[in-house]
Amino acid sequence: MTAGFAAALSQAQAKISTHMDMRLPQADLLHEAMAYALRGGKMLRGFLVLESARLHDVPEAAALEAALAIECIHAYSLVHDDLPSMDDDDLRRGQPTLHRKWDEATAVLAGDSLQTFAFELLARDEVGPHALPLIRALAQAAGKDGMVSGQMLDIAAESAATPLTLDQITTLQARKTGCLIEWSACAGARLAGANPEPLRHYAQALGLAFQIADDILDIEGDAATVGKAVRKDADAGKATFVSLLGLEGAKSRAQELAQLASTALTPYGAAGETLKDAARFVISRDS
Ligand code: GRG
């Protein structure tokens, strides 16, 4: 991680956390559980929102609502993914999963509230005149043709007679994790009413590189803290990018994608440097 990128990421994390404390006072158990789900992550998606907003001179007050909104959607997906009816995980970000800390009903409801809260944030006046396209795009990215459909494909793959092909797993992951990454990177352009295409190309390559890196981490990372879901996949005979491309093939595909992501930022010139660093970080991260 370059020093510039590390500083930009930790500044984004601090700003989003402060904003969360303001928007989500811990009035009762439900609010406490929502805040618990939001804490401890890398906040990469929120960082992408703030950085793309910076590229488009979007006021920070608007960008922070969008950054917190996407972290809420991401946190909800993790809480629900960890439930006994899905992955049945005990740990998330090194802490007990929400349903282990409290109970399953609290986890379902905290996830539900995080999802609706995201849209409440995007409907705030601070977001400005371009809120509607942003809201529409988030509903599409998170819902029946985006993340949730990716999760359905993933669940269906568990009982499929044969492992997924490379094309099928690419589609699955583009929906399951790629759609939120794409929304995040495009958010700044959308908030400014500008063309999000260069950022969309960047994010599509970044999202796939992120998922391939996740599969590589499972093989090479710290077994106690990373890759648990992917390891489960491998154990269940489900295809991963590493099983389909081989370890070296997966690494070189991730490198190619990070390069492709950087090239997509050419229209932004030197201002795109931090997002290029983010692409390099995504394929070299250790958690
Ligand atoms: C249950 C509706 C529903 C959707 C779940 C995104 C998802 C769909 C499940 C997450 C399962 C998983 C481990 C996916 C692999 C990639 C991924 C999203 C990892 C977590 O993202 P990071 O690394 O996590 O950005 P942090 O903790 O840093 O926020």
UniProtKB/TrEMBL annotation:
Matching Pfam families: polyprenyl_synt
Record keywords, A-Z: Isoprene biosynthesis, Magnesium, Metal-binding, Transferase
Gene3D superfamilies in the record: Farnesyl Diphosphate Synthase
Coiled coil regions, renumbered to chain: none
Xref: PANTHER family: FARNESYL DIPHOSPHATE SYNTHASE
Family named by the database record: Belongs to the FPP/GGPP synthase family.
UniProt-recorded name of the protein: Polyprenyl synthetase family protein
